[in-house]
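Entry 14. Structure prediction run on the chain below.
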Amino acid sequence: MKPIVFKQTASQKIYDDYINRIKRMLSDLPNEDRLDVLMEFNSHIYESTDKSSETSEVDDLMDVLEKLGSPEIVLVPLKAEKKLDQATRTFNPLHVFKAILWNIGNGISYIVFACLYLLLAGFVFCIFSKIWNPSEVGMFFKDGVLQNIGMYSGAAGDGVYEVLGNWFIPVMIVISILWYLLITMLLKLKESLM
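Output returned:
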């Protein structure tokens, strides 16, 4: 890979630092994979920097690198994929172990988000269930202690009572909207960090 040469020393230092961060991030990949990724990033930087721009070379380079993102975050899924390819090609136990570690980090977070969205679907299900079967759906207490939110089909004389009544639906709508906003913002934050 032929490095890009910049006119300004500051630009060159920023570029060299960025390329070195990529190299460190990819250090345990095969040379061919490292070179492919480095050439792709280098090519993108070269093509995206505007040589005829009125903005300074440093500002132009910083804009390009900001759009590319931090190598320590952007390269995680790519590294996991490349490590998995290497592991399946070589059958080397060390590569298999590293591939699993890199891919688990990606997968676990998405499993957690899937569960959180599934819980949201449960809230919506409770809203519709309250409409069809109002006596068995709600927020149930016994002796001042919360027993259940959702469906409850206990015996009539067991001391469990529903506290929200018709307010259950608006409360669950508000909780569902807040829950959706919260988990979507968390997902957006997770994606911005990657």
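The chain is about 70% helix and 10% strand.
Filed with the rest of this week's runs.
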